[in-house]
Structure formats: C-alpha cells, structure tokens
Write a structure and sequence with these properties.
This protein has about 400 residues and is α+β, with helices and mostly antiparallel strands. The chain has one domain: Cytochrome p450 (Orthogonal Bundle), CATH 1.10.630.10. Helix content is about 50%, strand content about 10%. A five-stranded mixed β-sheet has the order 1-2-8-5-3, with helices on both faces. Strand 6 and strand 7 form a beta hairpin. The relative contact order is 0.16. The model has no long low-confidence stretch (mean pLDDT about 90).
C-alpha cells in the first residue's frame, strides 16, 4: 500500500489525479469500493472482481450512456446499443477484424510500420510517440478501408479532433469533433456509395453488403462506424503501443529479454494492457437499483468501471505497480471475453469484457507486436535519449506519455 495515499477520496485534486491516479484508486479499493464522486456524479467501482461482474451484467448495466458522448459526435453506433440491436451490428462487422480474416491485414501493418521507420532510421534519434505510435494504427485502418494514402494527414487531423470532442466536454471541442465527423463522413460518402454499387474485395465492401436478419448497415451507420473505427482503433492502440515502449525502455533488462526472445512481445503487450492501459474506465448506466458492498446505486445512475484501478488490484496481481513481462498471475496470451482462464491467471481488463468486449482486440495486439518487432529488428540498439525519462499523465479519459525520445545507431 502507498504511504502517500490520502485519507479521503475528495482530497485528490484533478491535477494530482492527472499526475498519479494510483493513490486515489488504492484508497477506493481499500476503503470505498463503491464511491459516489460528488464532482463527476459517477459511482466508481474499483475492485477487479466487481468490475468483472459488472462488465458481464449487460441486463442491469446498459451502454446507453455512449449516446450522449459518441452518439453526439458520430450519430448512433453499436457501442451505445444493447440487446438485439447491438448483436446484429456487431455480427455484421466482427468477421472482418478477428480470426483468419485478420491475416489479410498483417502485411498492411508491416508495410505501414516500414514506411514510418524509414522516415527516421538514418537519423539516429526520434520521438517514437509522434513519429511512430501515433501514426501506425490510423494508417493501417485507412489502408484497410482503402482510403487514399495522399490524404493520411487529413485523416489524422480529423481523428485527433474527433477524439478531443469525445474525451473533453468543452463545447468548443465537442463542436469541433462533430464538424470533423461530418467532414470525414462527406469525404467517405462517395467511396461508400461506389462500393455499395460495385463491391470489391475490401473492408467497406464487405460490411456494406453483409446482412444479419435482413438488416444491412445504412450509409449513416457506415459513416459513423468509420469514425468509431478511427477513434477507438486509433487512440487506444496508438497509446497502448507508446506505453509499451515507455515501459520496456524504462526497464532495459526486460527489453533485452524481448531482444533475445521475440515471442515475449505478446507478454510485453499484455503486461502493458494491465499495468498502464491508456483508457482509464468505461461507463455503464444502472437499469435498476443495485446493491454492492452495502451501498445502493440508484437506477439511472452512471457507473464508472475503473479499468485502471481493477488492473492494479493488489488482491489479484502481486506488486501491481511493478512492470513485469514474466509475471505468473497474468494471462499473457490472446484475450478472453470473460477476463480470466481456468487456472490462477487473470486477464487485464483493457478491452472490457462481456457483450461489448472490444472488437479490435486482435488487431491491436497484431499492430503492437508486428510493428514493434520490426522497429527493434531495424534499430536493435534502440534506447532512451540521454537524460530523458518518459512520464505518463492523465488527459481527459486516457493516460499516456506525450513524447518518447530515443536514440540509436543510424541504420
């Protein structure tokens, strides 16, 4: 337990939480496992097993909250839907991003990673966040969608503006996010229309012609899904890869282990998703009154499932603030929708659980592992720049490092 933890959750300011949220979460897990935050109005659930239980309970905890965040910017998406509406739309899209279909995109990941590394490999130094991790997932998604490479900077601008509109509640940023979605939707409309009329062997063609129970995605649904794919698939993967490199470069002995055994990239990704996954929480709406730990959460309340806290629960993970790609209590392999296997290893909760388990989990892992292995193969002596120490901080709903300065022998 941290000796610096405050006595009451209210003692944590926004600035203190942004710099170091872990004492706050530690206090909640220990003394306030169901905490009503007077500032946000959320009921925060912080212990691992409670978060797992609530993720799995889609009958009493609804995703409708996201209609007020993503829905405002994009229009309706599957993320805000429950029941049959969600199942139908997920069934249309899921086959394109999991399983054998994912093999079709591995060459896109490698090609895009090579293109970015080529820009700085002769220089001897780089900022991995702003020159590699920020670009890789969005470039891969645009490649999947068959969007023109010449317009990549425009897609990035829209993506970042939409993301700011989702994670910050200032009216100006929200309005800018809406405008960015509309611009992207207008850009994509003739492309989607063409593939509706003349399908090819591409991602958009397959989803616009897929049908479940007679339902096909409308133009507006496809446009909203493209924006969701760019933000959800871009932001979380971008920051996950960046955080993984921050962790490995700050623990050079573990980076040496990965150099010797590239199969450990999967461990490094899983441990990062536990130790420092960038998305701090997900929100559900209580459908009925819920009693948990002697506290009643009233129907209609917004419940924050604290992923960051649950992933660092000391009753589940030994010495949770230690980054360790060899830890025995974490499931290191492919993620499970229920969160844990049948043994003593528990899964990270970075991708959520249950019916809304993240569709892009396999793609995110593939981008992190393939891109990072290629980076290390090309620049085998990659290391932190002298005097630089990466610092992660909370910004809106995420936690990551804004820069990662490295040096290496020019290749």
């Amino acid at each position: 337990m941290s000796t610096t933890a405050p006595r009451r959750p209210e003692e944590i300011s926004g600035r203190e939480f942004a710099a170091d949220p872990f004492p706050f979460w530690e206090l909640l897990r220990r003394d306030h496992p169901v905490f009503h935050d007077p500032r946000s109005g959320y009921w925060i659930v912080s212990r691992y097993h409670d978060v797992v239980t609530l993720f799995a309970d889609s009958e009493r905890f609804s995703n409708v909250f996201y209609a007020k965040t993503l829905g405002v910017v994009f229009g309706p998406t599957m993320l805000e839907m429950d029941g049959r509406d969600h199942v139908v739309r997920r069934t249309i899209v899921a086959p394109e991003v999991v399983g054998k279909r994912l093999d079709n995109y591995r060459n896109l990941i490698e090609r895009n990673a090579r293109d970015m590394i080529e820009q700085f490999r002769h220089r001897g130094h780089a900022d991995l966040i702003n020159e590699f991790t920020t670009w890789l997932p969005v470039n891969v998604i645009c490649d999947m969608l068959g969007l023109p490479k010449a317009d990549m900077p425009l897609f990035h601008e829209w993506y970042q503006t939409m993301m700011a509109g989702l994670t910050h509640f200032e009216p100006e940023k929200r309005a800018a996010g809406v405008a960015a979605h509309r611009a992207l939707a207008a850009y994509c409309e003739p492309i989607v229309a063409e593939r509706m009329a003349h399908p090819g062997d591409d991602f958009i063609s397959r989803i616009v012609h897929a049908s479940v129970d007679g339902h096909r995605m409308s133009m507006a649904e496809v446009q909203a899904f493209i924006s969701l794919l760019l933000t959800a698939g871009g932001e979380t993967t971008d920051k996950s890869i960046g955080n993984m490199w921050c962790n490995l470069l700050s623990n050079p002995e573990q980076l040496d282990d990965v150099r010797r055994d590239p199969s450990l990239w999967d461990n490094a990704f899983s441990e990062t998703m536990r130790h420092s996954f960038p998305v701090l929480s997900q929100v559900r709406t209580a459908v009925v009154d819920i009693e948990l730990h002697g506290v009643t959460i009233p129907a209609g309340s917004l419940v924050q499932l604290s992923i960051g806290s649950a992933n660092n629960d000391e009753t589940v993970f030994a010495d949770p603030r230690r980054f360790d790609i060899h830890r025995a209590d974490l499931r290191m392999a492919k993620e499970l929708r229920k969160g844990y296997d049948d043994g003593q290893r528990f899964g990270h909760l970075g991708f959520g659980l249950g019916k809304h388990f993240c569709l892009g989990y396999e793609m995110a892992r593939a981008e992190a592992v393939i891109g990072s292995q290629l980076l290390l193969d090309t620049l085998p002596d990659l290391r932190l720049a002298p005097g630089f120490a990466p610092v992660m901080h909370v910004d809106g709903a995420t936690r990551s490092a804004p820069e990662l300065l490295v040096e290496f022998t020019p290749a």
